[in-house]
TrEMBL record:
GO molecular function: guanyl-nucleotide exchange factor activity; phosphotyrosine residue binding
Domain SH2: 15-114
SMART domains: RasGEF, SH2
Superkingdom as given in the UniProt entry: Eukaryota
Record protein name field: SH2 domain-containing protein 3A isoform X4
Positions of region (Disordered): 125-164, 204-273
One of the Pfam families matching this protein, by short name: SH2
Lineage, opening ranks: Eukaryota, Metazoa, Chordata, Craniata, Vertebrata
Keywords: SH2 domain
Chain intervals with Basic and acidic residues compositional bias: 154-164
Record keyword Transcription regulation present: no
Swiss-Prot/TrEMBL GO biological process terms: small GTPase-mediated signal transduction
Source organism: Acinonyx jubatus
Originating gene: SH2D3A
């Protein structure tokens, strides 16, 4: 591979293909080791490494961590797995020249670049990705949108004169900012998507970025509350997940709540009498995937979710799940008011106390719902046998990415393993046989690594060191404290009881260390809002049971859905 000179843009690299759909990328990958880098149309142009390995086309999303501009340092870092690089070119060179696997879960090695034929398409819109000839000419007609504020009056006016009649259907907000050109948003757009589009476009369409940013406003953001628009400079302000007052602007990019430093209490750390039971489940905000009233298992939503999970590699999905699990457990994002109400500083401490009853019920509900959703992902595949085997492989890879030493999200690992070990899934003999035939490494990892690990964790003997684990396995302790009996002979159950109680006590003592470990893994991570929502407890409940069925008693809901999964399993592989 050609080593680029300092300052060379990655768009000039022969392995970079620009906006390219997943299907077209897979058609270009012919042999094991073939790879290319493309701009994902569904992720606002974020880079994705597509590689063929062991006969399958794999796609690895490269996370782009935006930094505030400072002299002598890059404007962004590119992250794959746990490593960060100052440029996409240096990331690719490191993995290719060193012949290192792109992910530990797959072992895929990129060794042979697929050379780009022809110039890169300049538009990141979905129409351009589909090959619309009219929109391919967009970059050449930029003369009617100059870099002066006066040029804004031409934006959105007589578009057919510049782009052809076919381009009139594309909204202006679909075009990301190019270099220092101003873009006037004609319709309201989510701030998160605008921020991602803005960050992803800088330096991506031009060989050299502007040496000095303009002092005129570069972007107009309409506030959802209907207040007058606010302006932001090159680095947009991204609101934290806990909420920001509408219309409030700040020149500095705010750190997300999971990176905020924990407030130091002036008084000594002593026990405070709890005032009320605390819930860490986020409020039922309007969903971007579900309507106000939804039916169970809506096909449109299931199709959208499938595309989301296919677009993210297991490591990225594992970080999304770790973030949501840390919030649901009360490990990260605990406010001062919540600490005062529960009398302790962390949910890991609260779940061991009598007034942690509500939190324990929420964690059990989350565990069951995620396991059912994972089983549905397999049993809902009514297509070819290979499709179900590929879904099994995806769940196994996700479990590996959640394990100790990786994301370290043991509650998430337990939920995924609960789906794989569910009777309706484990009885699919033909599907598991196809997994062993087509995806041997994943099948071996499941049998030899994941199943023994899960068995040890359930018995209170698995790894729980805060260095390799970010969020410990809390389900055994939660079940025990809620009065569930331990299975097995009396002598074995007594030993297991003592180990589980000791592990719960140790988890509560090590809560600050777990918080530090989780925050370290999530530092610089910017989640996909839709995927993050899809992993919350409230969303999974509404997906499985509908907006009306969620209010039914838990036991009745679980029993009904188990029957649904049994019917699906029998349809896929009937008995006899």
């Amino acid at each position: 591979m050609q080593v680029p000179q300092d300052g060379e843009d990655f768009a000039s690299q022969p392995w970079y293909h620009g906006p390219l759909s997943r299907q077209k990328a897979e058609a270009l990958l012919q042999q094991d080791g073939d790879f290319l880098v493309r701009a994902s149309g569904s992720r606002g142009g974020h880079p994705v490494i597509s590689c063929r390995w062991q006969g399958s086309a794999l796609h690895f999303e490269v996370l782009r961590v935006a930094l505030r501009p400072r002299p002598g340092r890059p404007t962004a870092l590119f992250q794959l797995e746990d490593e960060r690089f100052p440029s996409l070119t240096s990331l690719v060179l490191s993995y290719v020249t060193g012949q290192r696997p792109l992910s530990q879960a797959t072992g895929a090695v990129a060794s042979r670049p697929v050379i780009r034929q022809g110039p890169i398409r300049r538009s990141f819109s979905e129409d351009t990705l589909r090959g619309s000839p009219a929109l391919t000419e967009l970059p050449r007609t930029r003369k009617w949108s100059d870099s002066q504020p006066a040029g804004l009056e031409h934006m959105g006016r007589s578009r057919e004169d510049h782009c052809g009649p076919e381009a009139s259907a594309m909204p202006m907000c679909a075009l990301p900012r190019m270099g220092s050109d101003p873009v006037l948003l004609k319709t309201p757009a989510p701030l998160g998507s605008v921020a991602d589009s803005l960050r992803a476009s800088d330096g991506q369409l031009h060989a050299k970025a502007p040496t000095k940013p303009p002092r005129t406003p570069s972007l107009v953001l309409r506030d959802a509350s209907g207040r007058p628009p606010t302006y932001c400079e090159l680095v947009p302000r991204v609101p934290s997940a806990q909420g920001t007052p509408p219309g409030h602007s700040s020149p500095e990019t705010e750190a997300p709540w999971w990176e905020a430093e924990e407030e130091e209490e002036e008084e000594s750390r002593s026990f405070a009498r709890p005032q009320a039971e605390v819930s860490f489940c986020p409020p039922n905000n309007p969903s971007c995937l579900l309507g106000p009233q939804n039916r169970p298992l809506e096909p449109r939503v299931l199709s959208t979710l499938r595309g989301l999970f296919l677009e993210h590699h297991p490591g990225s999905t594992a970080l999304h799940l770790l973030l949501v699990d840390c919030q649901a457990t009360g490990l990260l994002g605990v406010t001062k008011a919540q600490r005062g109400a529960m009398g302790v500083a962390s949910g890991l401490e609260l779940l061991t106390l009598p007034h942690g009853h509500r939190l324990r019920l929420e964690l059990l509900e989350r565990h069951e719902a995620l396991a059912l959703a994972g089983a549905l992902a397999v049993l809902g595949c009514a297509g070819p046998l290979e499709e179900r085997a590929a879904t099994l492989r995806g769940l196994v890879e996700l479990a590996l990415a959640l394990g100790p030493g990786a994301a370290g999200d043991l509650p998430g690992l337990a939920a995924v393993m609960g789906a794989l070990l569910m009777p309706q899934v484990s009885r699919l003999e033909r599907t598991w046989r196809q997994l062993r035939r087509s995806h041997t490494e994943a099948a071996l990892a499941f049998e030899q690594e994941l199943k023994p690990l899960m068995r040890a964790l359930d018995e209170g003997a698995g790894p729980c060191d805060p260095g390799e684990v970010a969020l410990p396995h809390v389900v055994p302790a939660v079940r025990l404290l809620e009065g569930e009996e331990l299975p097995g002979p009396l002598d074995e159950s007594c030993e297991r009881l003592l180990r589980t109680l000791h592990r719960a006590r140790q988890m509560a003592q090590d809560a600050p260390k777990f918080r530090e470990a989780a925050a370290r893994r999530l530092r610089g991570f910017r989640p996909n809002p839709q995927l993050r929502e899809a992993l919350t407890t409230g969303f999974v409940q509404r997906l499985l049971w509908g907006s009306r069925g969620v209010g039914a008693p838990q036991a009745a809901r679980l029993e009904k859905f188990q029957r649904v999964l049994s019917v699906l399993s029998q349809r896929l592989e009937p008995d006899g």
